[in-house]
Amino acid sequence: MIARAGSVGFHPARPYLDLALVEEVQWRAIVAYRPTATTATTATTDTARRAKATSDCLAREKSAFREGRIDQTRLYALLDPGPAWARARVRTLDGVRFVPPTRPAPPPRCAPA
């Protein structure tokens, strides 16, 4: 599933809610040459100092996700029940709840030949 996605995002963007899951998904994304939208900088969003541009970007992504304006090639791992629009699209695999991509992503640019 991760290899078919263009990238992987976590919602909400608080990886410490299930750090073991986030680390495993990120590891699988790395193996599949797919970027993840959550980094260590968002792990401390409630307490860390960060640039206004970063805060603004996270707020825009959160708002867009809540409203259902999503990247159709991204796989969204859910760390909470998710917004109402997503519930009909949520799938579960190995106990992980996610919204799968609806469009195929292009092949990774950095994959070995």
Low-confidence stretches: 40-45
How are the strands of the largest sheet arranged? 1-2-4-3
Strand content is 15-25%
**Helix count, DSSP H or I runs of 4 or more residues:** 3
CA-atom Rg in angstroms: 14 Å
**SSE arrangement, N to C:** EHHEHEE
Shape: globular
Largest sheet composition: 4 strands, mixed
Average pLDDT works out at 83
Helix content: 25-40%
Overall structural class, as computed from helix and strand content, comes to alpha+beta
DSSP strand tally: 4
- How many structural domains does the protein architecture include? 1
Distance between the termini: 21 Å
Short structural description:
The chain is α+β, with helices and mostly antiparallel strands and 113 residues long. The protein has helices at residues 19-31, 52-66, 84-87, and strands spanning 7-11, 74-78, 91-93, 96-99. The chain has a four-stranded mixed beta sheet, with helices on one face.
